[in-house]
Amino acid sequence: MIPWEILRSQLGEERVITNPTLCRAMASDASFYHLIPQAVVYPRSESDIQALFQFSQTEQIPLTFRAAGTSLSGQAISEGILVGLARDWRSFEVLNAGEQVSFQPGVVAGHLNAALKPCGRKIGPDPASINACMMGGVLANNASGMCCGVAQNAYHTLASLRFILPSGHLLDTSDPDAEQLFEAELPELAKELRLMRQEIHEHPALLQLIRQKYRQKNTMGYSLNAFVDFETPLEILSHLLIGSEGTLAFISKAVLNTVADARLKMTGLLVFQDIQSACYAIPSLSTLGAQAIELMDRASLRAIELQTELEWIQALPEAAAALLVEFQAHEETSLHSLQAQLEDLLKSWPLLAATEFTRDQKKQAELWKIRKGLFPSVGAVRAQGTTVIIEDFAVSLEVLAEAVTELQELFQRYAYQEAIIFGHAKDGNLHFVITQSFNQPDQIQRYHDFMADLVAMIVSKFQGALKAEHGTGRNMAPFVETEWGPEAYALFKRLKKLIDPMGFLNPGVILNDDSQAHVQNLKTLPVIEAVVDQCIECGFCEKQCPSRNLSLTPRQRIVLRREMQRLKHDPAQAGLLKVLQEDYPYYALDTCATDGLCALACPVKIDTGLLVKQLRSESCSDFKQAMALRMAKQFPLLEKSLRLGLQWGKWGHHTLGTHRINQLKKLFLDALFDLPDWPPEWPEPKPWQPLAVSNLSADAVYFSSCITRNLGYEAENPLPEVLHRLCKKAGIKLADIPMGHCCGLPFGSKGLHEAGNYLRNQSIDMLWQHSDFGRLPVLVDNSPCTWQLLSQPEGLNPENQSRIQKLRIIDSIVFALEFLLPNLKLQPIHAKAWVHPVCSVQKMGIEDQLLSLVSACVTQAEIPQAAGCCGFAGDRGYWVPELTQSALKDEASALELQSSADFYCSSSRTCELGLERATQKAWHSYLYLLDRVSEA
């Protein structure tokens, strides 16, 4: 038995997880391997890491570090202790006016670029997963990407490193005395590294091999170029850790030198008649100075052709291929010169489509969205039950076309009909994706034989690198010696033994003596609910999830559904299955905000919230569904009862106190109703009556949400009054829709779909009539209600599905920008405002518009970088308050560290209540601020 209590006493009870449900939730990363950890541990400090190393060695249980878990070759899974870094280790700092950036391993790579953008700088590595992957993985895999090439990867831009060796020694290369301390504390290690360097330099053939290998991208094995590029033992060791995939040490902090982020960019998609023609064009584009040249074959374009506005892609012939090309410059003159030369070059090629090189940022983003979402998008169109496999390699540009042709022949030989090829063609670094099942021995053998032929082709025929940027991982570990030869491989093993003598750091990764390791512990993807079955567990969704630090992420909810499906077919695991089924409701359903932000991050738009709503619905009894529908049909009476209950509760709170009110609730109401404890901050409803304005003379129709009508603001007029006052100032006439309606969101989010759809259809009926059959725009004052009315048309009857296409339903943010702001006289005030765009605002893509509105009112308006879903989820924050507390922890901390603001603005009353609870600040609709600064 492993004495986990010893570790808990050192790190904290909540930091050491052995619950089988939570351990299985972490059994998958983005690769096609599957290992179940014995424990998941979340350390907070370097002393915690040192304690973990000691515990690992004493108990002889291996350790694997995991940041975002977006790695593709199985580096971030373990059968021992999986050490999670994503919940902590997230601090970073821009240094020297952006010339450098310091960070911990749990920082999302894209966040660094966002912080560096005002300085005109960025980090060198630019992987396609930059908005999901974390810097621990970027360093551990020596990630590169689209424009990075060899010169700007983490290895070449490293300024300093702070790390802990398995021995527990902490080293920091930024310390001026670091070399002397290293020599004094670890003389044998320093001596051995110096000796290895000497041996390499005295071996001309090996020295030449190393130099030749690193002229192109190569992440196969350890970074032996450190022995060539550096002289002192500590410099060598720190650079050996880059690309070591967590097998040598733990990196607690790093500083990278940044690179200039070109201000001017010109991007275009070139379409060729075949992939060989595209390959032959690459050297000319590279010579011209293209920073990025991304190859996409016809199969990869087919996978995304329905997810892009570029409709002409669908008409391309079967052999076609494309190059996504980007030129960058710091000066206009340079870009103009490039454009002229490029036009001459394009005239010499028989392109299949007219090519426009655009400088429009939105169009550029659309083009890059195609490329960056390729891998998950391809995985999403796989056959049900099959697994997605992605690999990458690098060869010289001289043989790239030949290598591509031979790879396509390999696909045909092994019947990988859906295989695709894409990648960083400028560097000769291509990726390929294949899909297959691992359910039968002959299917595993098929993959084994394919890999054998692939290795022979890349290594023997084209003298290339089997891994160019994804890291060696488990899939290529058996072939490291094949590529590098016995002498270099002996150095790899010697290095591992020297630094990690017990071999407990991420065993099986990079070095593996088992020649069959790449076909063991393979992941199966059993068929589950259709709404999420496309998921390939890439993990892009996780950074968006409000419950990621509390319970489960969208990926983990899906991983557990698949695990339960596997266990159903194994009678011996009935007990374990029961445990997972009992745990799932809290971890996966109760603590899900169903906010849908995961769909924004997912390349194929999987909304795991829809799965949760579906499962909640299935868990509701027929009686509960019927009662909900009955309540929906009597919504005006329900609303009056709610207002009365809120008024009584507020009176009782002031008169009897919160504790006594909750005692009475438990005694008299809990047996009949599912009610949360009385929250002291609940506002008292404020009376408001719709104004009688004929829609014949109105400019717009006003749909006030039941939330707005019943949850007012302390010491403020009701929001509908404020909106009407603003409209009067702007000369806009609003026609109010009568009270007693609801968009259905409070029911639908709980899985009470019949009741929710009834109310939604009723609302659309009413909007159709009052908008003069779609002639007038419909203003909605609560952003989640706007989104609810506009989304999920399948919940509407056929007539309303037609009507919703003709109705113009707009959020108050859009209404304020279009109707109010042009007609208001504003007197902006010298003040600072924090702005929180709620989930529905983000899904509608109007967060910038919200910021613009607030910016028009004050001298400084800002969205906190940590802003995400508040986790309040309408009213779920009252039942599961820990969800809101966890979801807003980073944002609340960021607001605490910043100078206090004068205003805190949002556009959803329930979300504002959650924000108030977490930040202890008074949050209001931005409309109150707009009213304050506008003249009568």
From TrEMBL:
GO terms for molecular function: D-lactate dehydrogenase (cytochrome) activity; D-lactate dehydrogenase (NAD+) activity; FAD binding; iron-sulfur cluster binding; metal ion binding. Its cofactor is FAD. Coiled coil: none annotated. It is an enzyme of class 1 (oxidoreductase). Its EC number is 1.1.2.4. GO terms for biological process: lactate catabolic process. Keywords: FAD, Flavoprotein, Iron, Iron-sulfur, Metal-binding, Oxidoreductase, Transit peptide. The keyword Nucleotidyltransferase does not apply. Belongs to the FAD-binding oxidoreductase/transferase type 4 family. This is D-lactate dehydrogenase (cytochrome). It comes from bacterium (Candidatus Blackallbacteria) CG17_big_fil_post_rev_8_21_14_2_50_48_46.
